[in-house]
């Protein structure tokens, strides 16, 4: 199919893709809890393989403007924000070249993590192996990291009840992973805790991957590294508990304090000196003492003396329900406690007046669309083909003859014949034409084949990413498929591109 593919088409072709994937990696299966239509339970997409073209399109060709790694372009493995054709936001982790030399090992590891589905995780939804490229695709969390909210906040610090919630939710995530046979988490820290669109804390799935050849299981700061890892270089479930203890210290102090220093203060009963001064005393000393006690257990030098994940949950869960003379914190939504808007605001609908094409597509007037495409002819194809003299072969002449016959049939409204002639032109593949794809898309719509129409319109967008006509044709096809919200999004996108062109940008 083309380099772009809608969620709808992926659902229609999922069985065929699964069959191919099973041949490539025979031990791979769809994760448990996957509902019909490619969606896992809870609305999280089923895990699958992405093409490199999909991810390039989603991230604007991995634009530096889309980097969301905390250390920006200096990060060894960059994370990009992206948006798929079905409008879902994603986070794409791009590893350094040949970080995973064996593609099967990378795919196996990704599929293992991809089976997990839990509300406390930023779940892994796919991967890509293409040449030397190794990429992971996860749910996108739009409200920054715990590190940002704790150490680099601008508007307000995290209140005490929210800190307790973060501790519990991450403990629940670790307990779930341990129960599902994935107890190892690499370099758990405040940068691995993310906040979703509702402000709920989630644990990044990226830390569940076994470490690649070019990285380390822990950050280079040895003060926060489990002592046994320094001895043998291995991550164990007990190592994860040590790292969880450092996160608890972060939550309590609002600073990144080395564990040995914190433990000395705890032993000296100087707990109040460790508490974050930005809380201004608005916390329960009893609750803080309990959390410090748990942190102390997690940071024990001997791994066997540390608690397990169920101990973490058992200690932290009761703290969520203490009223303390206030409204139960469990009743207050996370976004309220974080001081952020609820959910992700939809982009405003462009206020500019629609072009004739936009108006025709909004009205689903296929006759008007046909008239516009006939009048526009091929002016929008300029620059999409640069052919050498050697390519002007007899095959090329035959191909252009097929296009000419298609144009005549299209003009005369013989849409079935136009499909046949345009298909001959497209199938040769020597020359790409977004206009032919848009015309064949309309022919398919007029022959009640919206699946094929959507496919052609998306392929036209791949050829010419800023072409509003491609988006308009997708909108009509999506509406024919009863995907009206997606159709409305596409109309808005197309109108924005037209407005951009009117203000001097490219896009028609």
Automatic annotation (TrEMBL):
A GO biological process held by the record: brassinosteroid mediated signaling pathway
Keywords: ATP-binding, Brassinosteroid signaling pathway, Cell membrane, Kinase, Lipoprotein, Membrane, Myristate, Nucleotide-binding, Serine/threonine-protein kinase, Transferase
Start and end residues of each stretch annotated as Disordered: 1-40
Membrane protein topology class: Lipid-anchor
GO cellular component labels: plasma membrane
One Gene Ontology MF term: ATP binding
Catalyzed reactions per annotation: L-threonyl-[protein] + ATP = O-phospho-L-threonyl-[protein] + ADP + H(+); L-seryl-[protein] + ATP = O-phospho-L-seryl-[protein] + ADP + H(+)
Protein name (record): non-specific serine/threonine protein kinase
């Amino acid at each position: 199919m083309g380099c772009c593919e809608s969620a709808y088409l992926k659902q229609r072709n999922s069985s065929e893709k699964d069959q191919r994937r099973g041949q490539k990696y025979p031990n791979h299966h769809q994760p448990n809890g996957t509902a019909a239509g490619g969606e896992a339970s809870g609305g999280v997409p089923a895990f699958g393989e992405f093409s490199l073209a999909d991810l390039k399109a989603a991230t604007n060709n991995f634009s530096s403007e889309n980097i969301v790694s905390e250390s920006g372009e200096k990060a060894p493995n960059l994370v990009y924000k992206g948006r798929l054709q079905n409008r879902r936001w994603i986070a794409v982790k791009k590893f350094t070249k040949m970080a995973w030399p064996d593609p099967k090992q990378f795919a196996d590891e990704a599929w293992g993590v991809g089976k997990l589905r839990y509300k406390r995780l930023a779940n892994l939804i796919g991967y890509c192996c293409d040449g030397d490229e190794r990429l992971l695709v996860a749910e996108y969390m739009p409200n920054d990291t715990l590190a940002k909210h704790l150490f680099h906040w601008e508007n307000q610090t995290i209140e005490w009840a929210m800190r307790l919630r973060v501790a519990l939710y991450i403990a629940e995530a670790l307990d779930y992973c341990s129960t599902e046979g994935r107890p190892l988490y690499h370099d758990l820290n405040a940068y691995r805790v993310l906040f979703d669109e509702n402000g709920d804390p989630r644990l990044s799935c990226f830390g569940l991957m076994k470490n690649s050849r070019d990285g380390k299981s822990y950050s280079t700061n040895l003060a926060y590294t489990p002592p046994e890892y320094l001895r043998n270089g291995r991550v164990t479930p007990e190592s994860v508990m040590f790292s969880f203890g450092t996160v608890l210290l972060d939550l309590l102090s609002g600073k990144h304090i080395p564990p040995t220093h914190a433990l000395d203060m705890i032993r000296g009963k100087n707990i109040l000196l460790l508490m974050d001064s930005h809380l201004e005393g608005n916390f329960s000393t009893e609750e803080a003492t309990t959390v410090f006690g748990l942190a102390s257990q997690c940071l024990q030098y001997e791994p066997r003396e540390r608690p397990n994940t169920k101990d973490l949950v058992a200690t932290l869960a009761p703290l969520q329900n203490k009223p303390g003379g206030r409204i139960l914190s469990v009743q207050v939504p996370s976004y309220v406690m974080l001081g952020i808007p609820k959910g992700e605001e939809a982009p405003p609908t462009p206020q500019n007046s629609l072009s004739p094409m936009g108006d025709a597509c909004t009205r689903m007037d296929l006759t008007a669309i046909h008239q516009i495409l006939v009048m526009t002819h091929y002016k929008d194809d300029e620059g999409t083909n640069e052919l050498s003299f050697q390519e002007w072969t007899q095959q090329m002449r035959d191909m252009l003859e097929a296009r000419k016959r298609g144009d005549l049939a299209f003009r005369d409204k013989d849409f079935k014949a136009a499909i046949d002639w345009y298909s001959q032109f497209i199938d040769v593949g020597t020359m790409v034409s977004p206009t032919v794809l848009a015309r064949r898309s309309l022919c398919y719509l007029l022959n009640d084949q919206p699946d094929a129409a959507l496919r052609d319109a998306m392929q036209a967008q791949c050829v010419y990413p800023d072409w509003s006509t491609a988006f308009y044709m997708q909108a009509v096809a999506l509406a024919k498929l009863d995907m009206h919200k997606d159709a409305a999004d596409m109309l808005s996108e197309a109108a924005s591109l037209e407005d951009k062109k009117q203000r001097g940008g490219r896009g028609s």
